[in-house]
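Here is the promised in-class demo. Please do not try to memorize the tokens; focus on the logic of going from shape to residues.
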């Protein structure tokens, strides 16, 4: 069976996340520089192979001081681990619009398996004749699983930064 390569369209994609701050508000961020590919059997995405990498230096929460702290050894340690990578081990169809993505996420040199729900938006042809596919990946990971342990206790109780990181990843790929 012939395989099809799909390359990410970065102008129509976003690698986003949210973390609770001070136990009651969310801080949103994203990575501005990343690469992703899918290899599928034609237009059938069952068991497609998905690979992703992000340049940690490109983290953007809208606050330079916070971004620099996230790049430091307290969090991502960009000097020693400049990239975050993901490689799928399975991509299983649940129903017409939903898949389950399982793979290995590597942050700070620590590799852990993650299981994430994926909404499959379908295959479309854009006005210029390019075949596109859309995926929305959500889910939650615990940052401490990858050694992102820094925190600060709050005087009123609780902590400054939640352990849970909620993912909001919108991806558009173009058939190559």
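The designed amino acids, position by position:
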């Amino acid at each position: 069976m012939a395989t099809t390569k799909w390359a990410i369209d970065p102008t129509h994609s976003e690698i986003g996340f949210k973390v609770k701050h001070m136990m009651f508000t969310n801080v949103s961020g994203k990575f501005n520089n990343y690469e992703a590919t899918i290899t599928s059997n034609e237009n059938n995405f069952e068991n497609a192979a998905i690979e992703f990498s992000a340049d940690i230096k490109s983290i953007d929460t809208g606050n330079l001081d916070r971004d620099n702290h996230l790049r430091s050894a307290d969090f991502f340690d960009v000097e020693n681990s400049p990239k975050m990578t993901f490689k799928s081990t399975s991509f299983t169809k649940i129903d017409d619009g939903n898949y389950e993505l399982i793979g290995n996420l590597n942050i700070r040199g620590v590799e852990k398996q993650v299981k994430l729900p994926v909404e499959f938006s379908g295959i479309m042809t854009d006005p210029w004749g390019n075949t596109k596919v859309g995926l929305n990946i959500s889910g939650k990971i615990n940052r401490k699983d990858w050694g992102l342990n820094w925190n600060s206790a709050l005087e009123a109780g609780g902590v400054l930064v939640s352990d849970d990181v909620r993912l909001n990843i919108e991806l558009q790929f173009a058939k190559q």
